[in-house]
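hi support,

uploading two proteins for the ticket. first:
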Amino acid sequence: MTEIKSTLDLVMEKTRHLSFSEQEKQEQHFHEFAKRIKGLIQQYQDQKLRVENLKIELSALQKTFGLKSEDIIKSEIVARLDLHQDNRPLLTLLPDLCRSDVTPLESITKEYKEAVYQITQARTAKVKQHLAEKYFIAGEAVVPNLENDEAGIKKIQQMRDKFDRLFTLEKSRLADSVET
């Protein structure tokens, strides 16, 4: 009787003569290194890893793999930056680990938040004034629902688009810069 082989046995039998070239081994080594760095940064972002521990883990990875991590770290952090979220934890890593100037990104983020606040305040005042004049509804308890205010939504969206372009441009500049 013939032996029934598993799929793994069949694959191993067919590929036993294949092996990685030296270049393929190096690429695989680099991808594994980058993947581990990505995982560490995710743990940091999820607040499961503190900065001190992140530095220790990154140093150990560099020793284990014999590779430099600064460019990989920078590109991974920059890819995670988003204008519409709190970027402070990630922005503190860039100067510390990659010697990168994040002042322009911080400035854009601050201006964006201020612009959203200004538009929101102006629209709130305008809607309150409209309610008071047209419907005689006024007072401290009146809180306009700006989520349904089409004019306000349109203004905020236009402003967001402008700041998104600036933020993306600055992220590209930062990612492309190589510190020496």
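and the second one:
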Amino acid sequence: MFNMRKSKISFMIPRNREFLNKSLKEQKEILVKLENLSETILESNITPNAKRFYRMACSVSRELHYFKMFTRLKIHANAILSGIIQPEHAIEDILLKFFYQRFPKFIIILYSSRNSISYIIAPIELKESLKNKGILIKSEQDYIIGKSKLDLKNLLSIMIPLAKGNSLFNGILDPNLDLNKLFKEFYGSQHIESRENYRLFFQNMPKKYQKKKDMVVEKTFRVKTLDRFAKK
């Protein structure tokens, strides 16, 4: 988070919830003030505006890092991955590109409860097919990014027949596979009883994440949850 460059700060601020909740006039004023700040002053946090802008950018960056690590993706037929996210900031398109880079042979769909919109990233070959389905499309190099007001279930019903899948995954992908169960089994298999340290585990779980609903595995120490061993 430290020594964030001005270019990154300028990229993150327009995605900040605080920025998005302001009027267009106020947004323009913020961007003008940001542009007029020298890179040295902004990165050094030595003025009130520099501190404010740096804080806003860091808030977006922290949330982006969190969702990269803890978003749970579910496998569907024809090499489609989907997930539900609850971000405070407008980071959906960045997350899409991140997961597409990790899983380039898949179609990624993310439903955001922030604005009740489904976001999709898919091969460019599907561009015309998706346009005919009323999905807003933006073309990139070899892929497309789309937005739809359809919920995840309805969008999947459209995408699964359109997706061609990939022969690389034949016999491997099973939409009925319980990935959470597999991950719990893996998590348990790595446990070394002699190294149990409840206090350290509790200290390493930030308080603001202890109440997150989508961190079921991370909040579990063997068969105990945080609230069961926090008093140890």
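thanks. also noticed: The chain has a mean pLDDT of 82.
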